[in-house]
Write the structure tokens for this entry.
Amino acid sequence: MTNPYVLATLLFYVASLALYIWNLREPSRLAGIGATACLIGALGLHYVALLERSRQIHAVPYDDLFGSLSLFAWLLAATYLGLEAIHRRRSVGPFVLPIVLVVFMLAHLPEAREVKAPPAQGPLFAFHVTLNILAYSAFAISFVLSIIFLVQNRRLRGKKLGIVGWRFPPLDVLERMTRSSVLIGCVSLAVGMTAGLIWAHRLEGQYWDGDPKVIVTVLILALYVGYTLVARTATWRGARASMLCIFNFAFVIFSYSIVNRYLSHFHRYF
Amino acid sequence: MEIVLIGLSHRTATVELRERVAFNSEQAREAAEQLRSRGILEETMVLSTCNRSELYGVPGEQSADSAAAVELFLSSYHQMSPSELDGSLYRHRDSHAVRHLFRVAAGLDSMLLGEAEILGQVRDAYQIALDHGETGPVLNRMFQGALEVGKRVRNETEIGTRPVSVAFAGVKLAERIFGKLNSHRALIVGAGATSEQVVRHLVDRGIKQLRVINRTAEHAADLAKRFGGEVVPWENLTASLDWPDLIVTSVSSPEPILTRAILERAMAARGNRALLMIDLGVPRNVAPDAGNLYNTYLYNVDDLTEIVEQNKKARQAEIPRAEAIIEEQIEKFLHWQAGATTGAVLGELRAKLAAERDAFLKERLAAMPNLSAADRVQVADMLKDFTDRVVLDPAERLRGVPELRRKLQNLDALRDLFRLNREKP
């Protein structure tokens, strides 16, 4: 972790997290703006660090776990920032930033210094990788939002709001934020998969080779599209939809870990 | 630039006394004008609300005991004997008066800690005084500072965010579930005083649509008319439950009017859309087990009272943060005040020295008839340079060292020493 950009990024993420927590504990306009500003700064620096890594391997970092995790952390933070700007809510930041920070630190452990050129390259492939990781990050945010929804819902039904209960976004806003992030994830995953299939066809002359990663990804897309369809129906709206969202994310974790590591023929960390 | 404050509030006076000493806006303007025209105060400002009547001012040069004169004025204006106000008035000067005003604007001196209405009242009172030229540089700065304090305390602390009335707590709970209420609908069951309080808050928070239902249709019509709602016949109560997002009940009934079975059917009809029920009736109007239905949130009076009590404690916990903001703003005001006073005193000192110098030159040069005109000009210039140089160093030190200004206690001693005329900065 000796790269100055990486260290500066870490510093900005930590500062952003501290300010988000401060803002949740003692809401203050200054702390809120500071948290967002630090996050923007961290995203800028993180982008430079990623760019540096990409230049070394002449591709989007995906082939090693660390590069992929770093890209995931960046996209997670960027997606959160987008949602924060759209919904004008900062109270979710203290719960998303720790994930960003942990993933970022994992990505930049000393082992990650050794970077190797991945076997697959090219703009279409880069598009495929980036969009798929963006989808995972959007699903990760929907997972966090769903947990917050369930906690807040439990507090409201149990009539025990406490300090945090008055500061979390309203349930309606949490639902809308979750749906927004799932929508981002579904669109990214659909377009990313399509790009991957086109790239595979160009390379091997066939769209589908039965790789388990592709099968699991189609399943994930189907699960999240299913969530989008049922989230506002009489049976599912509210807490049940949030539980479904949490359940779906288990498949994302499965895909990102077990499938990538042990089952896929050529997919690595995307 | 002394500041005086004479007043009484809910902390020091009974409501009967407060009513007698209250000023309406016309009286406030008139009283301020009289205080100035009688030479008691040079700058004045009357702040009068249902909980306080306060006179702020900057005394003129001739006002020997301005505080006593203001007290006398206050009693005579309201045709009372001064003894009737004994023990009820508070008197503050300078930084204590500033601190008092800043605490008032922040809602720390309010009957309901952190209430926001007082800031609007301070703003309105100041605007009236400003429009009629009753204030001057000191009170302008002081009241602008107070408005800034009020704004900062509301933005930077949570002293005013959490509801401390049962009716408002219910409405804030609705916002915790639905967010902004401008796209949501409320059904008010009952048209009594309690319902009206909730309706008032709902309308303030921008509720999209309102329906009122009551056994006595006239009362429902009256409430609906005043707040722009619609009336629903009492017989249609159960059929109306698929419409609202929020139901507020406050009717007198020995048995719950909304049972679990009724609400179960309503939830099915509304596609399980979230439903908040605020039951303000005693005995309760909504069956307690209805709160277990999926996507329903049920709060009764006791639940809301408990939330209110928690919020009151939370507001108390915010006081130190509010006080810190107040101290910071007082420091800023005092710094400005000292700077303004310094500028005025230095101006007076320069004018005094120039006058003394001119008189001295006139007298001495008259005794030297042989001196040429060019030499006279040169002597005058030399003396001017000398007097400027004498003033320059202390002037710079006074401007640059706030501690020195404090030591000189508003520079009154300097004024007296040099026999300077007191002028407004």
Remarks:
- Residues 319-366 of chain B form the longest helix (48 residues).
- Chain B has three domains: 4-161, 166-301, 333-418.
